[in-house]
């Protein structure tokens, strides 16, 4: 049996069980086949357009789990398309994809490159590992990408001699020489901070993908805010996945960079856009929160951005429960709020008698804590509730340092 026949025959099998079952089987490269089967299974979830092409070759499982998803790659492509359609002006010339050059200095498995390079006259994939270059070359042919060039070279070396490009993209490796995770920009490979002056002379626009664990304001400071054009905090299904920073030597010093808090759900993209500064200052509720009927939890990207006061300015009628609660309330429903919306059914303190009355008839609930002394597990044990169901409980601390629980039902919206 050939490798491809084995892969096709077992493409939906459990890989771990298959590894035991097929151990010692002659005529096939079992490690390779297992990587391909696992890769195809992951691709069906993360890269459906790649999964539809049987001849794609996949890397080991850990690389598949760490690579960009089709959703985030397409979002980055949409950013470039938007800049093109709005005639993004850098260095007094129109940003035109059809006559421009795109360079990815950290090609890797090539997912971002495969989506972001479409529409450019010329696209260059740069990767220092030869086996990834070979894999990328094969896959790009399978995907009918005919405008690409694959270069096996260190990013720093290629940048030294490459021609000027319209867009340069980097997703620096976030692991040290021992394989441990790193998060600081200066600890990544290549060192973007050291390369930044050269990058800005070689490209009109630099797009940098960073860890979502990074503080975006510190990242801006490390990269020099005067070069920052846009910051994007990108979440998928309300889980932060990427921090994107767009830089240019010609970014206008008179205008503030924009911050894009993005949440992708299926094919829907919600984006909450604000200027980086100044941010308005809001007040806490001036009435007891029991007078409000609706509770709101901002989406993960807004949580990460910390732009809570902007929500109060942007959505009249909502107020923060307390300065550090990161939860909001309103008297009337705000259907387009960028996050989850709940109808408040009851509110209670942690007083045993009040709790017993408020939880009467409730056997299970989805529990979240915000600025609360107990963890979710500890509170669930205290309340003696199973997980799940249609009831949502938010435990937080009010503006007078009282511990309160909101018992709610979810209102369907964009998350």
Word description of this protein:
- By secondary structure, the chain is an alpha/beta fold.
- The chain contains 15 helices and 18 strands.
- The strands form 3 sheets. A 9-stranded mixed beta sheet has the order 5-4-3-6-7-9-8-10-11, sandwiched between helices. The protein has a 7-stranded mixed beta sheet with strand order 13-14-12-15-18-17-16. Strands 1-2 form a two-stranded antiparallel sheet.
- The mean pLDDT is 89.
Brief account:
By secondary structure, the protein is α/β, with parallel strands linked by helices. It is built from 15 helices and 18 strands.
Descriptive tags:
415 residues; alpha/beta; 9-stranded mixed sheet; 15 helices; 18 strands
Layout of secondary structure:
Layout: H1 3-9, H2 15-21, H3 30-46, H4 48-51, H5 61-66, H6 70-85, E1 89-90, E2 93-94, E3 101-104, H7 111-116, E4 122-127, H8 130-142, E5 148-152, H9 155-161, E6 165-170, H10 192-202, E7 203-210, H11 216-223, E8 228-236, E9 239-247, E10 258-265, E11 268-275, E12 294-298, H12 300-305, H13 308-314, E13 318-320, E14 328-330, E15 339-349, H14 352-358, E16 364-370, H15 376-383, E17 386-397, E18 403-411
Parallel strand pairs: 3-4, 3-6, 4-5, 6-7, 8-10, 16-17
Antiparallel strand pairs: 1-2, 7-9, 8-9, 10-11, 12-14, 12-15, 13-14, 15-18, 17-18
Q: Which stretches are low in confidence, meaning pLDDT under 50 for 5 or more residues running?
A: none
Structural category is alpha/beta
How would you characterize the largest beta sheet?
Answer: 9 strands, mixed
The number of E-state strands comes to 18
Termini gap: 47 Å
**Strand coverage percent:** 25-35%
Rough outline: globular
State the helix count. Answer: 15
Rounded mean pLDDT score? 89
Order of strands across the main sheet: 5-4-3-6-7-9-8-10-11
Q: Taking Cα atoms only, what radius of gyration do you get, to the nearest Å?
A: 25 Å
Q: What share of residues is helical?
A: 25-40%
